[in-house]
Amino acid sequence: MVAPGNIGSYESRVRDFCWSIAEEELGIAGKNQVNIGYLCTDRNCRRGLGGKTAMYWENSNGQTKTYTFDQLRLATNTYAQLLKDLGVKPGDRVCLFMDRVPDLYIAFLGILKLGGIVQPLFSAFGEEALETRMADAETTAAITQMKHVRKLRRIREKLPTLKHIIVVDGNADTIKEGEVAFNLDNAKSVEHFDVYPSERETPSVLHYTSGTTGKPKGALHVHGSIVSQHLTSRWVLDLQPDDIYWCTADPGWVTGTSYGIIGAWSTGTTQFVFDGGFSSEVWYRLIDKYKVTVWYSAPTAIRMLMRDGDELVKKFKLTTLRHLVSVGEPLAAECVLWSQKVFGKAFHDSYWQTETGCILISNYPGMKIKPGSMGRPFPGITATVLDLKTHQPLSETGKVGLIAIKPGWPSMMRTYWNNSATYYGKFKNGWYICGDRASLDADGYFWFVGRDDDVINTGGHLVGPFEIESALIEHGAVAESAAVGTPDPVNMEVVKAFIVLKPGHVPSDDLELDIMNFIRKRLSPLAMPQHIEFVESLPKTRSGKILRRVLRAKEWNEPVGDLSTLEND
Ligand code: PRX
User: Fold this and answer.
1) pLDDT for 372-410, tens place per residue?
2) How remote is the CA of residue 437 from the centroid of ligand 1, in Å?
3) Strand order in 361-362's β-sheet?
4) Atom of ligand 1 at shortest distance to CA of 219?
5) Residue 167 pLDDT more than 80?
6) What are the chain's domains?
């Protein structure tokens, strides 16, 4: 079967696959120099797309802006030059701490043109979440907005490497000493910038992600990642020249950078960016207004749309939508069937991770969708399911094991920043272990089962129990705690904290609220426990490790499993 557009059938693409297809398309075959900032801007202008709209932007107040690829080229040059003039050097980490304003997207590419390493941080992060990540990365500069700068001011003294804070909507009256007010609209546009001659292995983006143990880990990516981000954008997202593409993810997370910036613009696609929260009505209105054709979103959003009903959909003209893709959490069969019913198009699931940089497994356009399955590996990706104990590929279909990928695709992380031991620990028997469980069916489709660790996936965002528990312990009333995921109809799971109080403190609604707010401010609204249960003690192993899986199993009404190591059983 021939897929929509000109991307070819899945079978023929698998048979004839070579990553050089993307290199040819990007014009980098046989060349050493590869710079994501250049390829997403100047190169599009050189191939005649300078006047094409690169970005339609709108915020929740209804303000709008539009940038052509030529304006994007100039604006990214301007950011690169600003950083260079400040003394930021190639290899320095520059953090982006902003809402989805145009500067976020532009500065991202400007930093890359300079050869800096972009460190995107979610703008809702609290001081502690910020400090942990910036201290680990030894961040040199931060680019932020007035509404977020206060958090940086409060931790600046604890970050000796942080030399520059650039405030994109600041002015001489609002900024503090040692900060730079910068306004792109008033800045002198830089026509020419000598793009840093980065190569495929030159570091590009440092994305922090949560694990079960220890602090968040920085997955380090390289400029060569664009090869797989480009090809997956073409073949899985099916981006074509006339598309209006909307990736609803925030660039604080990997989907918002790999596909909300790099894949969108390496393919020269016009994308729409919305700087605002979720509302079914607003989202439908925006699809209608901007005539969105390709939509990349997540199951939590789909569930919220479903909750708001089918009648609302009918109020808008959504017939421009031609391809829908989902990521971040299991996409239930009922979501696929619902989208088929109301939009006339099924959501196509896609599976990948911060660490992998690009889509690994997906429902390729034109391929038969089995609702509830993640689909098959992207051509060029070798994926399998390994036995839980032996780490050998399972020969039996239908048996649950670990999702594993043969290393070597271009956008694989190159290490965890300052933590190569954990990076190497992710490989077993020559496979990269994703840390998720799935089964494979006889047709080679993957069926997601769950995570293989204690990380909580709330609304498609991973939060690490360790980070929450470390923050909880700083609250005056908390003696010890365990954070686990508990079922939630919209967000799949939300954080629940089991808390043992210090002597002299008694459970109360006020205390519960105080603890919740404490975490929201320090870490983020996502990490805030939605439920708190005060307990006398926590289940632990004989060696004193908290057995979160026991608490989790009870929340999900699942069997607890082997309790032979339980101390206080
Ligand atoms: O557990 C899997 C889940 O999200 C994890 C990766 O999260 P993160 O690194 O934040 O990247 C999210 C965006 C790529 C995975 O290990 N996950 C991601 N996609 C799916 C999924 N779970 C089920 N189905 C998916 N399609």
Assistant:
1) 999 999 999 999 999 999 999 999 999 999 999 999 999
2) 11
3) 64-68, 53-59, 270-275, 244-247, 294-297, 323-327, 347-351, 361-362, 376-377
4) 9
5) yes
6) 10-440 (3.40.50.12780), 453-556 (3.30.300.30)
